[in-house]
Design a protein that fits this description.
Blueprint: E1 10-12, E2 18-20, E3 23-28, E4 34-39, H1 53-65, E5 74-81, E6 84-89, H2 110-116, H3 118-123, E7 131-137, E8 141-146, E9 160-164, H4 169-177, E10 183-187, H5 189-197, E11 201-205, E12 208-214, H6 226-235, H7 238-245, E13 250-252, H8 275-284, E14 291-298, H9 302-313, E15 316-323, H10 325-334, E16 339-345, H11 350-358, H12 372-381, H13 387-403, E17 407-413, E18 415-419, E19 423-424, E20 443-444
Parallel strand pairs: 14-15, 14-16
Antiparallel strand pairs: 1-2, 3-4, 4-6, 5-6, 7-8, 8-9, 10-18, 11-18, 12-16, 12-17, 13-17, 19-20
Length: 446
């Protein structure tokens, strides 16, 4: 629903700066204790309800009452008038805008909410966006149609958007090549390479990295020993994996943030491929004859197969468990034993991402234990106001995590969109958020 049915107060540009959308302007109070938003006028929800401060306060209050992570520093939303609303903070953090520039604070019709209740609004989304909800069939399709009440005159240009689920890659590829699809979302490596060679436009970005995540919350885990984790990293030839699997869309990294991300710590050392050192570390850790680990991955992942072979070469036997997407996320949310092969986006604020994924209020990564002192430093880094000092504090957190080899990173993996040459002005990858685009502007050439 994001960006099509629903819209936020502000959108993030490519550098993650806030740009006006449903809020046309704003100003901060003294010491960033509060911020006052001036709302766009003459905006309606698709059911004809006027968009006013009431809708903003309704969504904001729900987030506060639900103790949403992005709203932890929100004290109250207070209506000044129909087109002016103030957000008071318990404290200002330098990741403030991330909670407001996306789907977290998109707005639904207060009329529908009051009349029909929360369940109805969940199943029949009504927003201010260029399209309105038409139908949804799980694992088949989502259909949206033109919102004739949209506030941008003459837009959207398209009459309908159909989001089609195609589970099998080769089927999706043939669907695109047959002209039955216009955009193919979130593809990687060989798919991007093949489709670009087939004449399609390809846009991509590096939102995060692929890595191994350890069950360090388990006191009996063999990977609780930092020497074992380091041995695993030295055992893996990342350059060879990039060459074999990347097709030009993998970028070597030694940390969660991609080298293209502003939060990347350029001064971090690296643990390059050195199987002899890996074997010595295993011996030092008390495993001169090797050990056995459990590795969980989604499907028949060539990345996991490569890791299995590299670890076997230094004496680490890998019992590989390939699971479907549902079981994978169930592991993430309930806990697991062994190692997870994952890929996560990180955002532009590293301390915020670390706390969101691995902090006390996390909903995933339940088997990962980050030392309390490092989480405390990440929290302190969020309070630093000066951008240069904030970056230095973030870099320090990244370095301390590297020193304990908290995770083993391979590379940043470009996530891309395959786009038919007919698609014009989509805005895909024109924003810092990979999911954001410009559905109100997109059109198709003949």
């Amino acid at each position: 629903m994001e960006w099509t049915v629903f819209e936020p107060l502000v959108k993030p540009d490519k550098q993650y700066n806030p740009t006006p959308w449903l809020a046309t302007s704003w100003e901060w109070g003294s010491n960033n204790q509060y911020i006052t938003f001036h709302l766009r006028q003459n905006v309606q929800f698709s059911d004809g309800t006027p968009f006013t401060s009431e809708a903003v306060k309704l969504s904001g209050d729900i987030a506060i009452q639900a103790k949403e992570a992005f709203a932890k520093q929100w004290a109250s939303w207070d209506i000044i008038d129909d087109n002016t609303i103030r957000l008071t903070l318990t404290q200002y953090q330098n990741d403030f805008w991330s909670g407001l520039m996306g789907i977290n604070m998109c707005f639904f019709s207060p009329t529908a909410y009051k009349t029909y209740g929360e369940d109805y609004v969940n199943d029949h989304p009504i927003g201010t966006g260029p399209f309105r909800f038409s139908s949804f069939e799980k694992d088949v399709s989502l259909k949206l149609v033109k919102n004739n009440n949209y506030w941008q005159t003459g837009k959207p240009y398209l009459d309908e958007l159909d989001f089609i689920t195609v589970a099998e890659t080769l089927t999706a590829q043939s669907t695109m090549q047959a002209g039955q699809g216009d955009v193919w979302a979130l593809q990687q490596g060989k798919t991007l390479y093949d489709m670009k060679n087939a004449g399609f436009n390809v846009v991509q970005d590096y939102g995060g990295s692929d890595f191994l995540m350890f069950d360090t919350a388990n006191p009996n885990s063999v990977t609780n020993d930092v020497r074992v984790r380091e041995a695993i990293e030295y055992a893996i030839d990342k350059d060879a994996m990039i060459k074999a699997l990347g097709y030009g869309y993998l970028m070597k990294t030694n940390q969660w943030s991609p080298p293209t991300n502003p939060s990347f710590n350029a001064n971090l050392p690296s643990r390059d491929y050195n199987p002899d050192k890996a074997k010595q570390l295993l011996t030092d850790a008390g495993y001169p004859n090797g050990l056995t680990v459990h590795l969980i991955t989604i499907g028949s992942n060539p990345e996991a197969l490569a890791v299995q072979q590299y670890l076997q070469a230094v004496g680490i036997t890998v019992n590989l468990e390939a699971v479907d997407n549902n079981k994978f996320w169930n592991y993430c949310m309930t806990g697991w034993t062994g190692i997870m092969n994952v890929g996560y986006a990180v955002g532009f604020n590293f301390p915020s991402a670390l706390i969101g994924y691995y902090g006390a209020d996390r909903v995933i990564d339940k088997s990962v234990k980050i030392p309390d002192d490092i989480l405390a430093k990440a929290q302190a880094a969020l309070l630093v106001q000066d951008p240069v000092a904030a970056k230095a504090a973030s870099d320090e957190v990244i370095k301390e995590l590297y020193d304990i080899c908290w995770e083993v990173f391979f590379y940043s993996n470009a996530m891309g969109f395959v786009i038919s040459p007919k698609v014009q002005d989509s805005g895909i990858e024109g924003f810092s958020d990979w999911s954001e685009w410009s559905p109100e502007n997109v059109w198709l050439s003949k």
